[in-house]
Amino acid sequence: MNAYSPKFSRWPHKVDLFDVQVSATTYQECEDAVMQAATLHQGACVAHLPVHGIVEAATRADYRSRINEFDIVAPDGQPVRWALNKFHGAQLPDRVYGPELFTRLCRRAEADGVSIYLFGSTPEVVDLLRSKLSLLFPQLVIAGYESPPFRPLSDAENDAVCSRINTSGAGIVFVGLGCPRQEVFAHRNRSKINAVQLCVGAAFDFHAGNKKMAPLWMQKRGLEWLFRLTQEPNRLWKRYLVTNSIFMGLVGKLALRRFLDYRHRSIERAIDAPISSAMPSMSRH
Question: What are the two backbone dihedrals, phi and then psi, of residue 34, each rounded to the nearest 5 degrees?
Fold first, then answer.
């Protein structure tokens, strides 16, 4: 039986944002959907896209085609949530942040007896993460953990990874390889892994204590990028300069198109209205 079934009925509703199909969803809805699928060992793919990820998908057709086949594409960044609320009236109260959903799902998996698998980062980080999770969630079953080589896996290597994950019995696989590498891995194996794959980005580094997470007040105001830039300026300055600018351009372009469409419809209504109102009365005297 094919592990992957896009007909799974509980996945959150998606809307179009710059040709990227993004889930207008909440933490609770994602958590419930993932746990239902994980309990059934239903193969599925979940991405968390901040501004950087949305821009990658909007500007790269190959990456976008993969992302649009994911079961959940969560609005990881506040600006992404704001865009969904503005252009689709989603009324989302918060984003769905990968590191936060990671913690929630570990807690829920511990309570529901669903085992997890950690795949990504460096050997030191993933081992430290495993140790910390064991302290935070003593009853959580970590069915396996590994750090792959920092290069594309051969077919044989990839099949071996899928076999190890399936043999472990894990219902949830957390994939921490960074964007877009982690989404490429998850999509490649969506029909091979009998578990929900969640691409969680920097969650491994954050929860292992290898990197600092932005203060909550900065996260709420969409300033996490600025905090991360201060932590890793040499690596991240170009990413944020380019992707933030492109994202603002995409937002401006869509807002202008919506405004022009509204003006066009208003003019059409104004033209049509006098025609109907100016019709002579047919009343008899």
Answer: -65, -45
Pairing of strands 142-146, 172-176: unpaired
- Encoding tokens for residue 134? 């064991």
> Which residues pair with residue 173 across a beta bridge?
117, 197
Phi (first) and psi of residue 74, to 5 degrees: -80, 145
CB 14 within 8 A of CB 80: no
Compute CA distances 224 → 50, 174, 230, whole Å: 10, 22, 10
- Give the amino acid at 137: F
Q: What is the 3-state secondary structure (H, E, C) of 61-117?
A: HHHHHHHCCCCEEEECCHHHHHHHHHHHCCCCCCCCCHHHHHHHHHHHHHHHCCCEE
Rounded to whole angstroms, the Cα distance separating 250 from 80 reads 12
Tokens found for residue 45:
């793919």
Smallest Cα–Cα separation from 49: which of 93, 102, 14, 98?
A: 98
Distance, in Å, from the CA atom of 155 to the CA atom of 235, rounded to the nearest integer, reads 30
pLDDT tens sequence across 78-127? 999 999 999 999 999 999 999 999 999 999 999 999 999 999 999 999 99
Check if the beta carbon of residue 80 is closer than 8 Å to that of residue 54: yes
Q: What is the pLDDT of residues 27-39, one digit of tens each?
A: 999 999 999 999 9
Distance CA 80, CA 73 (A): 11
Report which of 123, 92, 116 is spatially closest to residue 102, judged by C-alpha positions: 116
> For the CA atoms of 130, 136, 142, 145, what is the dihedral angle to 10 degrees?
-20
